[in-house]
Specification:
About 15% of the residues lie in helices and about 35% in strands. A 6-stranded mixed beta sheet has the order 7-6-5-2-1-8, covered by helices on one side. A two-stranded antiparallel sheet has the order 3-4. The protein is an alpha/beta fold and about 130 residues long. The termini are far apart.
């Protein structure tokens, strides 16, 4: 039996919550193989960072290990290098040795997240 390979790129809000949904709905099926690829092996609930800074919460209260949360989904801690849509292949590097890892997919969800741009405004001093 051929398995449908689903790859999720990114472990931020979109990727992590998509993986949680698929963990409940599809990941237990024998014909589906779901893999989450992320640079970090944890999910950080950033909206509550201010409460950690204020001393109301411990950092461990807003950090969830991905492997423990997603029990039926394969997790790979790696950084995506290239995506070949025509060949349906993702190339990553991972581990201390930065080894090349290739993944084939039937379905691809790209959720790389965002980075805040803290730029200096002219005439505004901090």
């Amino acid at each position: 039996m051929k398995k449908n390979k689903v790859i999720i790129l990114g472990g931020g809000f979109a990727g992590f919550y998509a993986a949680m949904y698929l963990d409940k709905k599809l990941a237990r099926r024998a014909d589906v193989d779901v893999t989450l690829i992320s640079r970090d092996n944890f999910f950080l609930f950033t909206p509550m960072l201010h409460e950690v800074a204020g001393g109301d919460l411990y950092p461990a209260d807003i950090v969830n290990p991905i492997r423990r949360t997603l029990r039926h989904i394969k997790f790979v801690e790696a950084e995506v290098q290239t995506i070949d849509l025509s060949a349906r292949r993702v190339r990553c590097v991972g581990g201390v040795a930065r080894l090349a890892l290739d993944f084939e997919f039937d379905h691809l969800l790209i959720a790389p997240g965002s980075e805040t741009n803290f730029f200096d405004l002219p005439g505004v001093s901090a």
